[in-house]
Design goal:
- The structure is a single chain.
- This protein is α+β, with helices and mostly antiparallel strands and 315 residues long.
- It folds into two domains: 194 residues, Jelly Rolls; 112 residues, Homeodomain-like (Arc Repressor Mutant, subunit A).
- The protein has eleven helices and eleven strands.
- Strand 3 and strand 4 form a beta hairpin.
- The longest helix is centred in the middle third of the chain and has 23 residues.
- About 2% of the residues have low confidence.
- Pfam families: AraC_binding_2 (PF14525), HTH_18 (PF12833).
- InterPro entries: AraC-bd_2 (IPR035418), AraC_XylS_family_regulators (IPR050204), Homeodomain-like_sf (IPR009057), HTH_AraC (IPR018060), HTH_AraC-typ_CS (IPR018062), Tscrpt_reg_AraC-type_HTH (IPR020449).
- It comes from Gordonia asplenii.
- One of its GO terms (molecular function) is DNA-binding transcription factor activity.
- Keywords: DNA-binding, Transcription, Transcription regulation.
Length: 315
C-alpha cells in the first residue's frame, strides 16, 4: 500500500480542483453560507483508490455533460460522520453514519451532504470489477446498513484501510490487487443482498441451497490437491465470479473456506490413534496440502501449535 497523501483546501475553486483531480470532474455547490473547506486523505491498494473526504455541507453533482470525462469507476461511498443522500439511476437513498452505497461515474449522480461530514470513497476501475452493467445499474444508490446483514461484516473491513497501524497492510503487489478485488466483491455482494437481488443474472435456485451443496462437495474433495475455485465452479456450472459472491455473503472467500476445512480435517486426523506413526507431511497431503512446509505454517498460524506438537499433546 502506498503512503497516505493528505491535501486540503479552504476555498471553493481550490476545493473543486482537488476533488476533480482526485476523483472525476464534478459540479460542487455549497449549501450554507459558511466558507467551504475540506481535506482529502488518499491511499492506494493495488488498483483501488481509497479516499477519506472531510468537508462542510455541499452537493456534488455529476451531470450528463460530464459523464464522458474522467475515469470510469465503480465506487463505494461510506459515511463515517454525518449523513448523505445519493441519487443515481432513478433512485435516491439516505446513507446514514456507518453505512455505504455503490455508485458509478459513467452515469450521472448526485451526492448531497446537508451538514459537515466525513465520507470515505473506495473506487475501482470499472474494467476490474466483475459485474454486468445490468447488475451494476440495479445496485447503485441502494443503502447498505452498517449495523445489520452483510453490512455488519463489510463496513468494518473497508474501514481497515484507514483504521490501522502503520505497516499493517504492507503487502506484495499481487496480494494487494487480490485484496482490492475481494473488497469490491464483498461490497457488491452486500449491495445485491440489500436490494434483495440474486448474486448474478443467471443464478438458479436459492443461494443458501447452492452454498450448502458447494460446501458438501468441498468436504468430499478436501484430499484433492487440484480442488480450486475454477474446478468447484465448473462442477456447479456457474462462473467463478458467482462462486465468489456465494461465499462473500458470509464474508469469506472460497480459498479461505477450503483451507479452513482442510486444517480442521488435519486436526481431527492428528487427534486419532490411526495417525500414530504416519508422517506429518502425509497427513497434510491427505488433506490437500502439497507442501509439508505450507501445512506446518498454516496449521501453526491457525492453532498456535505445530502439527507434530499437537499430535503429541493428544496421544
Amino acid at each position: 500500500m502506498r503512503p497516505e497523501v493528505v491535501e486540503s483546501a479552504s476555498s471553493l475553486p481550490r476545493w473543486a480542483d482537488l476533488i476533480n483531480e482526485r476523483f472525476v470532474p464534478l459540479q460542487i455547490t455549497p449549501i450554507s453560507s459558511t466558507q467551504l473547506s475540506g481535506s482529502v486523505t488518499t491511499v492506494h491498494l493495488g488498483h483501488m483508490q481509497a479516499s477519506s473526504v472531510q468537508s462542510t455541507s455541499q452537493v456534488f453533482t455529476r451531470p450528463p455533460s460530464l459523464t464522458g470525462s474522467g475515469r470510469e469507476l465503480v465506487a463505494v461511498g461510506a459515511v463515517e460522520e454525518g449523513h448523505g443522500f445519493l441519487e443515481q439511476n432513478g433512485r435516491q437513498c439516505e446513507v446514514a453514519e456507518g453505512s455505504f452505497a455503490v455508485y458509478q461515474t459513467s452515469q450521472p449522480f448526485v451526492w448531497a451532504f446537508p451538514d459537515t461530514c466525513r465520507l470515505r470513497v473506495y473506487a475501482w476501475p470499472r474494467a476490474t470489477v466483475g459485474i454486468t452493467d445490468n447488475e451494476l445499474h440495479n445496485i447503485t444508490a441502494v443503502p447498505v446498513i452498517g449495523s445489520r446483514g452483510l453490512g455488519r461484516s463489510v463496513a468494518p473491513t473497508l474501514r481497515t484501510l484507514f483504521d490501522r497501524e502503520p505497516g499493517d497492510l504492507s503487502l506484495p503487489n499481487a496480494i494487494e490487487s487480490r485484496f482490492a478485488d475481494n473488497l469490491a466483491e464483498l461490497s457488491i455482494t452486500a449491495a445485491l443482498a440489500s436490494r434483495g437481488l440474486p448474486l448474478s443474472d443467471d443464478d438458479g435456485g436459492t443461494i443458501d441451497s447452492l452454498l450448502t451443496k458447494i460446501k458438501v462437495f468441498i468436504e468430499e474433495h478436501l484430499d484433492d490437491v487440484e480442488l480450486s475455485s475454477a474446478s468447484i465452479a465448473a462442477e456447479f456450472f456457474i462462473s467463478t465470479r458467482t462462486l465468489n459472491r456465494v461465499f462473500a455473503q458470509n464474508a469469506i472467500t472460497v480459498g479461505a473456506w477450503v483451507k479452513g476445512r482442510r486444517l480442521e480435517r488435519a486436526k481431527s486426523i492428528l487427534r486419532g490413534r490411526a495417525s500414530a506413526g504416519v508422517p506429518i507431511a502425509v497427513v497434510g497431503y491427505r488433506c490437500g496440502f502439497t507442501s509439508a512446509t505450507t501445512f506446518n505454517r498454516e496449521f501453526t498460524r491457525r492453532y498456535g501449535i505445530s502439527p507434530g506438537r499437537y499430535r503429541t499433546a493428544h496421544e
